[in-house]
Design brief:
The protein is of the alpha+beta class. Helices cover about 35% and strands about 20% of the residues. Strands 8, 9, 10, 11, 12, 13 and 16 form a seven-stranded mixed β-sheet that branches. The chain has a four-stranded parallel β-sheet with strand order 2-1-24-25, with helices on one face. Helix 21 runs parallel beside helix 23 and helix 23 packs antiparallel against helix 24.
């Protein structure tokens, strides 16, 4: 008889969390075991965990616990991505300091993480807003500057009026701020940039080495880097001692160029329009174009708008005069900010030429003959026309031939271009890493000396919203002396993009107490690379690309022992409810705290890992949570009712099921198929309720369920008479022979449609299978008087009898 002994999650979970904490159970130290570094993307300390956090960290914890039991020396750390706009905005709205807000939130979230039973080494905790961490973010900045990879320039930048700060291109989503959804506008500001473009080729080439990354992420990074091979062509401006360089990947169409287009930000425009009678109209049009977001400007569906500058350039290959336009669909961010326009063979150019009544010259024809009425751009391969001396050539051949011709005639040069732009890191906000630069009237821009790091962020400054950093209001912070000449100077008042902080934190975990360098290379050499990284796919371009870049840079500086930070990447799906992303405005937010209090951490973990494959969206279900809670109690009762089970051999059926389940769960955990692993443990549990149990069978069940529900299983493991904690016990082994079924289900079909099935001994020969099928009453009824045409037997799988009328 089952007892009504109910699992007391509150007492038991508190008990084991105290034990793990007091014994430093998951402390990581270098030893002779093979290492395994598993890491979830660290959170911004908002003050409360959400379901996305819970899913991410539950996945990582299962991996860490499984690998630890499988004989690995596991590093599983946690920290805080603690600088940034949310804390600053929260501080402004609540009239408190961001440091106070952040510290309070960290304390709360740390308790929440511990209440989930996550196996972190808290001795390695890092917090990016603490001077002992950002000292080395500043150190990395100085090294980048020393190597010529940081510069300052005035540029048109993405500006969010609501946040009062600049955004990198990667932080603009569909023309809006990635944080607050405000429409992004263009603004001219002097900014600091990192030359990530110097690493573009390496970043692209090494994507092929990321064998453990999802293809979707690799494709996104490949497209963002956007390598293309083409030609830069120099066009002389008529009646001016000026030359405009255009970049094209289609030199085969150069003879069809009838106009050229400049981005509204192009620096030559003031010279071109200076003496034009409609100068003011042109300037108004330019401003309108610049205020359009880049997504809108470059979309194939958007209206192509432009204005004629009144100036002309000369096509060097044929001497034709071409009009110079300014248009919204050209960006300074790509190529040279100027394009040659070939309306006969480019969809956007064709629409623009029709709109502004510009000539269209066909230079590629599918037949080698000129069309009488071109109704749309022809963008496929064909035969060259109107392109002497290349007429009659295939356009695919002319592509290279014309590129060579342009170089031979010194009209331009072949070149490689990337869509990737330099990383803009200046932020006009207070709550960030101070940029370690001094501005001196005599010496100019001067880097702070390494011995003076960290340049600490003053905590007596009140954040403000605006285009000027709050640091600029602090005389105490601003006023300093020049490190070179000793004269009065001013510190840089802007702070760094917070992605600078998160681009190397995984290295810091390997040696968080190191004082002289960002990492201790000996320790990093043991732990790096991260064996399994876990986080959302929304970071595919931002965080993941920046982390790869900084790791490569530190590798070149002989600081990082590896040039790629993450061997394997798992991008977990979002947690949704009622088919939509959880949000307060939709009223579909589930509070993890309430779930933990009502059902316990193990139930929450089990449901969130069982409800969907890790990489897919998970639709929250209250009924599903209750089902997981029932299963946790079902396992509890099973062990309680059989706590004194004998140490004797299992029945053949139970022994087979035990070994089969261990095998399947082991394989599923290696593949991160947590949902199917849990399903197989549930099947085993159901069978165990029907069988005579042994101490070994109960121990095996507890061990394989342990990574998913660690509190429950530690308690049961202890009750089963084990002195050492479960997390120190080896993962159970299985015997391939014992994992094989004695019987197998064979499907019986008639004309390919299933009509019956039967359990038969494994290895039953074809003749016997066919005989069993023919003896089935359902098969006999289906066949009736019909003629048997063919009999097909697939061993250990099916019998199919093909009949005619």
């Amino acid at each position: 008889m089952e007892t009504e002994n109910k699992y007391n999650h509150s007492d038991i979970e508190s008990k084991w969390q105290r034990f793990w904490n007091e014994t430093s159970a998951f402390k990581s130290e270098i030893n002779d075991q093979p290492k395994y570094y598993t890491l979830e993307m660290f959170p911004y300390p908002s003050g409360d965990l959400h379901m996305g956090h819970m899913r991410n960290y539950s996945i990582g914890d299962v991996v860490a616990r499984f690998k630890r039991m499988s004989g690995f020396n596991v590093l599983h750390p946690m920290g805080w991505d603690a600088f940034g706009l949310p804390a600053e905005n929260a501080a402004i709205s609540r009239n408190i300091h961001p440091a106070e807000w952040t510290d309070r939130n960290i304390a709360r979230m740390k308790n929440q993480l511990k209440s989930l039973g996550l196996s972190y080494d808290w001795d390695r905790e890092v917090t990016t807003c603490k001077p002992d961490y950002y000292k080395f973010t500043q150190w990395i900045f100085l090294k980048l500057l020393e190597k010529g990879l940081i510069y300052q320039k005035e540029a048109a930048v993405n500006w969010c009026e609501k946040c009062g700060t600049v955004l990198a291109n990667e932080q603009v989503k569909d023309g809006k701020c990635w944080r607050c959804d405000t429409i992004v506008v263009q603004k001219d500001l002097k900014q600091w940039f990192i030359k990530i473009t110097d690493y573009a080729e390496r970043l692209l080439q090494d994507i092929s080495t990321l064998q453990g990354w999802p293809d979707s992420v690799k494709i996104m990074q490949t497209n963002w880097i956007g390598k293309s091979t083409g030609v830069e062509i120099n066009l002389l401006v008529e009646n001016e001692n000026e030359c405009i360089t255009v970049y094209t990947t289609r030199p085969d169409t150069v003879y069809g160029m009838t106009f050229m287009v400049l981005a509204p930000e192009h620096p030559i425009i003031p010279k071109l329009i200076n003496n034009k009678p409609n100068k003011s109209d042109i300037e108004q049009s330019i401003q309108k174009m610049r205020n359009q977001n880049k997504i809108e400007r470059t979309s194939e569906l958007s209206e192509k708008e432009g204005i004629f500058t009144g100036s002309y350039a000369i096509n060097p290959v044929n001497g034709n005069k071409i009009a110079i336009f300014i248009a919204n669909y050209v960006l300074m961010d790509y190529g040279t900010g100027a394009i040659m326009a070939v309306p006969a063979h480019d969809t956007r150019d064709f629409a623009f030429a029709k709109k502004y009544n510009i000539d269209i010259i066909e230079v590629i024809s599918p037949t080698g003959q000129q069309s009488t009425n071109l109704t749309e751009a022809y963008v496929n391969e064909g035969i060259m026309i109107n392109s002497t001396p290349f007429n009659g050539q295939k356009s695919s051949d002319a592509l290279g031939n014309i590129a060579n011709y342009i170089e031979e005639k010194n009209y331009g040069k072949k070149t490689v271009n990337f869509k990737l732009r330099d990383w803009l890191i200046s932020r006009q906000r207070y709550w960030g890493v101070p940029i370690p630069i001094v501005h001196c009237n005599t010496c100019g821009i001067v880097p702070v000396q390494e011995k003076d790091l960290p340049i600490t962020l003053p905590l007596d400054v009140q954040p403000i919203v605006g285009s000027k950093s709050a640091l600029a209001t602090s005389d105490k912070f601003l006023n300093t002396t020049c490190p070179i000449c000793g004269e009065p100077a001013q510190r840089e008042s802007e702070t760094m993009d917070t992605f600078m902080c998160s681009s190397w934190y995984f290295l810091r975990y390997t040696s968080p107490q190191e004082n002289s360098l960002p990492v201790n290379k000996e320790m990093a050499s043991y732990w790096m690379s991260v064996d399994q990284y876990i986080g959302g796919i929304e970071h595919a371009i931002l965080h993941l690309l920046y982390s790869r870049f900084i790791t490569k840079f530190l590798y070149d500086c002989e600081i990082s022992p590896v040039s790629e930070p993450f061997k394997n990447l798992l991008t977990q799906g979002m947690v949704i409810k009622d088919g939509a992303k959880m949000s307060k405005s939709k009223g579909n937010v589930v509070d993890p705290t309430e779930i933990l209090e009502k059902y316990g951490a193990d139930t929450a973990r089990l449901f969130i890992l069982f409800a969907a494959p890790a990489e897919k969206e998970l639709d929250w279900s209250d009924r599903g949570v209750e089902g997981s809670y029932r299963f946790v109690n079902r396992v509890w009762r099973l062990v309680q009712n059989n706590i004194n089970a004998p140490d004797k051999p299992e029945t053949r059926k139970l022994l087979t099921m035990l070994h089969k389940t261990v095998k399947n769960v082991t394989n599923d955990l290696h593949k991160f198929s947590f949902n199917t692993a849990i399903a197989k443990i549930m099947e085993l549990t159901n069978l165990m309720y029907q069988e005579e149990l042994t101490k070994n069978s109960l121990r095996t069940l507890v061990l394989i369920l342990g990574p998913f529900t660690p509190h429950l299983c530690e308690e049961l493991w202890s009750q089963l008479g084990n002195n050492e904690p479960m997390y120190l016990h080896p993962w159970p082994e299985y015997d391939e022979n014992l994992a094989k079924d004695d019987e197998i289900t064979i499907v019986f079909q008639v004309n390919g449609k299933i009509k019956d099935k039967a359990e038969v001994p494994v290895g039953t020969n074809n003749e016997e299978l066919l005989a069993i099928a023919k003896n089935s009453k359902k098969i006999q009824t289906t066949i009736g008087e019909k003629k048997v045409i063919k009999e097909i037997v697939v061993p250990n799988k099916l019998v199919n009898i093909v009949v005619g009328n």
